[in-house]
Design brief:
Length: 123
């Protein structure tokens, strides 16, 4: 069992930056690849980024590549998402999630989810 708690969301002006963090409970954090997803009002939850168990490889969706950076610290059981050059289209609830696959872009591959943190970008 892994419990995930996101933090770092908030209100930011367009062009600004935010750093989201996700703290995981349990001693098996390094057994899971981690991902960030987001869900905007009226839209389906979508993949943002993922990182492998050892942090050596990352994957990004098109809108995140070049602006967002995912990283993890297995010693402290955390995964982060640095978001730069934010626009109003990035407004959403952001979720971190854990998967036993090597990494995945699919919601259904993730078995543990946090409660989400709201990111609002004012234009």
């Amino acid at each position: 069992q892994v419990q995930l708690v996101e933090s770092g969301g908030g209100l930011v002006q367009a062009g600004g930056s935010l750093r989201l963090s996700c703290a995981a409970s349990g001693r098996t954090f390094s057994s899971y690849a981690m991902g960030w997803f987001r869900q905007a009002p009226g839209k389906e939850r979508e993949f943002v980024a993922a990182v492998t168990r050892d942090g050596a490889a990352q994957a990004y969706t098109d809108f995140a590549r070049g602006r967002f950076t995912i990283s993890r610290d297995n010693a402290n059981n955390t995964v982060s998402l640095q978001m730069n050059s934010l626009t109003s289209e990035d407004t959403a609830v952001y979720y971190c999630a854990a998967t036993t696959t090597l990494w995945s872009t699919r919601n259904n591959d993730y078995i543990y989810w946090g409660q989400g943190t709201q990111v609002t970008v004012a234009s």
